[in-house]
């Protein structure tokens, strides 16, 4: 159990992952679009990068969109320890306000939370909380860190510690 003083001093890591490349099949609602072949190849690369560079993730908040859930399934296969995953309706389509609200509700025990969602909301969230503009292509990851409780997330709260788009070596 974390007491309030320790919680206030703790640094939190908010890791943002844009879903992998999706397909656009005719007659399929946006929410139900699956990953494309490229997305199925690249999502595991994001998982490997997270495993090697982020390490333990305490909680995953995932958009209810099919492509986000498929991205998480491929990422989870690459992690040494698979954290709890919660479908978070606010992450689809995911305005920066909704993304922030979802992250703020993370449990005090969670030091690292992974959000899996969509643009433009994810880019806007990273820019808002870090005051650093970033581009998140499909399968891109941004690692943010900030002090205090999750409820402290606000404009300027975080440092952008890493930004990467894992791609296969050619």
Please explain how this structure is put together.
The protein has 170 residues and is of the alpha/beta class. The protein has a single domain (4-108, 119-164), classed as Phosphoglycerate mutase-like (Rossmann fold, 3-Layer(aba) Sandwich), CATH 3.40.50. Helix content is 31%, strand content 21%. The protein has helices spanning 4-9, 37-53, 66-76, 96-104, 121-130; strands at 11-18, 59-62, 84-87, 112-117, 141-147, 159-164. A six-stranded mixed β-sheet has the order 3-2-4-1-5-6. Helix 2 crosses helix 3 and helix 4 (96-104) crosses helix 5 (121-130). The longest helix is centred in the first third of the chain and has 17 residues, at 37-53. The chain is globular and about 50 Å long. The mean pLDDT is 95.
The figure for the number of domains is: 1
Average pLDDT figure: 95
The CATH class designation is Alpha Beta
**CATH architectural designation:** 3-Layer(aba) Sandwich
* Amount of helix: 25-40%
Q: For this structure, what is the CATH homologous superfamily?
A: Phosphoglycerate mutase-like
The residue ranges in which pLDDT falls below 50 over 5 or more consecutive positions are none
Give a quick account of the main beta sheet: strands, pairing sense, barrel closure: 6 strands, mixed
Quick recap:
This protein is α/β, with parallel strands linked by helices and 170 residues long.
Features:
single chain, 170 residues, alpha/beta, Rossmann fold, six-stranded mixed sheet, 5 helices, 31% helix, 21% strand
């Amino acid at each position: 159990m974390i007491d309030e003083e320790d919680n206030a001093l703790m640094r939190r890591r908010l890791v943002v992952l844009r879903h992998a490349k999706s397909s656009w099949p005719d007659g399929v609602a946006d929410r139900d679009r699956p990953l494309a072949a490229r997305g199925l190849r690249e999502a595991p690369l994001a998982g490997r990068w997270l495993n090697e560079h982020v390490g333990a993730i305490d909680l995953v908040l995932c958009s209810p969109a099919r492509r986000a859930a498929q991205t998480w399934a491929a990422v989870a296969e690459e992690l040494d320890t698979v954290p709890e995953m919660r479908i978070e309706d606010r992450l689809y389509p995911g305005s920066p306000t909704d993304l922030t609200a979802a992250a703020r509700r993370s449990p005090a025990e969670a030091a690292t939370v992974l959000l899996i969602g969509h643009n433009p909301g994810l880019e806007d969230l990273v820019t808002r909380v870090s005051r650093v503009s970033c581009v998140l292509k499909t399968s891109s990851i941004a690692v943010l860190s900030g002090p205090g409780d999750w409820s402290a997330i606000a404009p300027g709260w975080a440092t952008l510690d890493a930004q990467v788009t894992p791609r296969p070596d050619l």
